[in-house]
Specification:
single chain, 498 residues, alpha/beta, Rossmann fold, Helicase, Ruva Protein, domain 3, 4 domains, five-stranded parallel beta sheet, 20 helices, 19 strands, elongated
Length: 498
Amino acid sequence: MMSKSWETNTAPPEPASPMPSRSIPANDFGPRLLLVDRDSAGIRSLVAGLSRALAGSVRVEIVTGGRAAAEMLRGESFDLVLADLASLSDLAGKVDEAIARLVKLSAGALLVALSEGGSVSVAVAAMRAGAHDVIALPIAPEAFATRIGELAQRHGKGQALSFADDARPGRADFEGFVGVSSQMQHVYDQIERIAPSSAPVFITGESGTGKDVCAEAIHSRGPRAGKRFVAINCAAIPRDLLESELFGVVRGAYTGAHEDRKGAAELADGGTLFLDEIGEMDLSLQAKLLRFLQTGTVSRVGEASQRRIDVRVVCATNRNPMQLITNRLFREDLFYRLHVLPIHLPPLRQRPADILVLARHFLTRYAAEERKRFSDFTPETASLMTARDWPGNVRQLQNLVRRLVVMFDGGEITAQMVTAADIESLTLGHQDTPAASRAEPVILPLWQQEQRIIEEAIARFSGNITLAAAALELSPSTIYRKRQAWADMDGTRRKGAA
């Protein structure tokens, strides 16, 4: 079986007389890619685009069948193996058997299967056999490159398969957000699509994912950008004062009301009203908020007359709204009045491609503020940071980088420096720190291990619960039920800590 190769930054050669394969040391040409593909112009175009986007000189070897791929993997090392499933039939009669043989021979390479059929059963078989991912074709070149970048970061190949700064797929920053992952590109696209509307927006996401940044981005991208953006945190204001803060108060309405005062809704007239942590709002006030949304009028506390105002309402919560409704902590009619344009912000652990992008952004920013010179994170540190769970999400990462800049004088950020600065993880007992990797393993409760397995499977299938359930041999309803139970437990812990 013959093979062909090309070295970027050039386009792949036109099919001509194939050249015999020759053994090349793994690091002579930087990243090494092996493509198993019979003769698909679309696939080769994707690989050529990916090669141009990767940093450094990239060597691509092409073989047309599974047997040739196995033979090449026996003698050479690769960083990435891209295997068209339709091209593996000469290696084994079943997809899982062919993939398993390539995985065994690939010596730790990132192995990604390509499938033009998009069959769920075929994808599950390939994943069970050891493929790091299955990408359904056709796919846009930018999305393909982003997907490979995310997989490389997640599976420890981020150093070998790093993107050049000027060729990194997707937007790296957007209205205060920093991130190049496909999840964040989707969020950016959602914001751009819904910003021109006046319909309510409902933002969900864990603490520290940037819900306030999302709300401001929606405002600044919309027609109300020239008007006021007024934010009110429903969890930070005592319940007996929240109504006057939201709708205003007239003089003498209660003790201490010495003058007429506008509420947040009136102040935002013509602009955007952002209700953060709306799940903490009292039920009685939820009824008044619902009336305001239905009529477009407000009445200050202690006032009988109505005032007509025009605002766009954006709300956010880090809790499961459906569980709040089930527990009768949130009105169902209010939820459906607000849940017109939903946006979900993914946690940082589900978008590892953004971790170093964010860390370097914060390092540059805080080093300039502190007038210090830091070069970068060492490769070891970068790998450790990418592999972490980051339960506090972007906010936790931001705090850590700022602490590093304050505590140290400059140079490269090492794993030892991160361990010394990572006070939060040491205090809270998180087991995803560099120091913890050298400590005795901690036995987690069974439900926590189960949660981690399921969430990792969902992340591996880019949020597709149906595919994750098939891979785990569960029904999708079981995953939904378990996630609901975890949300209940989280809510119980929050109440106990309050």
